[in-house]
Specification:
The protein has about 450 residues and is an alpha/beta fold. Helix content is about 45%, strand content about 20%. It has helices spanning about 15-20, 115-125, 130-140, 145-160, 165, 210-220, 220-225, 235-245, 255-280, 290, 295, 305-320, 325-340, 345-355, 365-375, 375-380, 385, 390-405, 415-425, and strands at about 25-35, 40-45, 60-65, 65-75, 75-85, 85-90, 100, 170-180, 190-195, 200-205, 230-235, 250-255. Helix 4 (about 145-160) crosses helix 19 (about 415-425), helix 9 packs antiparallel against helix 13 and helix 18 (about 390-405) packs across helix 19.
Length: about 450
Amino acid sequence: MRQNFRSTFVLVHPTEILEALVGLKDVRVLAYERLGPRVELLIEQTPRKVLCPTCSMAAHVKERPIVRYVDLPVYGAAMALAWKKHRMACVNDACPVNSWVLDDHRIAAKNCLLTTRAAKWATKQVGDGRTVSEVAKELSCDWHTVNDAVTTYGAALLEADRKRLNATTAIGLDETSFVKHNGHAHPRYATTVADVANHQIIEILPSRNYVDVAGWIESQSKDWKERIVFGALDMSATYAAVYTVMLPQAAQVVDPFHVISLANRCLDQVRRRVQVEQLGHRGRRDDPLYRVRRVLLMGEEKLDNEGSERLSALLSLGDPHGEVAIAYRVKERLRDFYRTYDLDEAKAILRELLEHCLRKAMPPEVQKLGRTIKTWFDKICNFHIARVSNGPTEALNNLIKRVKRVAFGFRNFENYRIRVLLYAGKPNWRVLGSIVVR
């Protein structure tokens, strides 16, 4: 027997479907219209008794201006909400309040032309790495409409999500270029404050000056400052001073990458000087020291027998006084310092290397390296206590550069800060759903 399913269907008025689409209590759909590829809904808040915020007397609707907002697309079609707002007026003629407009943060925030749900969706999309122009194209609106919404809701999310600050015991400070000016103006730098334990950005500061960086740390809670055990840095005197004054209990840890880079630069400077002294010109293709320049920067353990023999042969030809060989051995001994896991052994290696570098017979570049090691001796050794580095901060700076490339650069620092923190700050996106922006 055939079963009749027709009785299971219920006829629903189109307005009921549209009200379900809006999905807001006390908000009704008055009409809908399709304007080309765009669907527009005319909505209004259900009338209710309103009292004057000043004298608490009854208020009446003075006029109903219509404000249009961009909403999320529906079934591939662009959608807009035309909100018929209520401009209220007090019945008391003596009341100083002339009129005011009733707002509803569930529909849209003040001074935002995206609906609340569209603004939160756009913020998440931009935070995932999409460009503002790409999101604006999908919503069929202009760039500024999306950017203003992302800035508003992104700032609210970062302010509400305190977990980013409270989860760390080790921070890193590093500078990154914010704007590179043309002409003779100096580039502007920003400071990245990173959680090197959890590999996320905590904050972006508008400069690298001591006052600005120290001021930010001072503004944090006492519990947060007492929780910081280690502070990573890259041999910056400014950042070292910040740690010393603002976080005296934190052990400062110089990043191993920058120490080894310093030794590599020392080795390259010695090679270049010896090259000019021996041949009277910069390195050329067939010169022994030019041919060996890349091998010198490789770790000794990565060289096979053929590579080791090639290194020895070329140094014997181009380095008659052994200065380049000395700088090479210093670099390798510094790498031995980082390969050991015993603190006392590491200190003994570095102290022996320091004494060796400071001898008067050493090349001037090696002596300069020794003086730098002497200045930062304890902070370099602290790596073997903390086993943290500024490497995560450097990696996060690469994410910052990606955001800058996607955006084709920034001029407004606040836009730059919010975009970077949304992308690389690992905010708790679940908080965004409960954010209220009025």
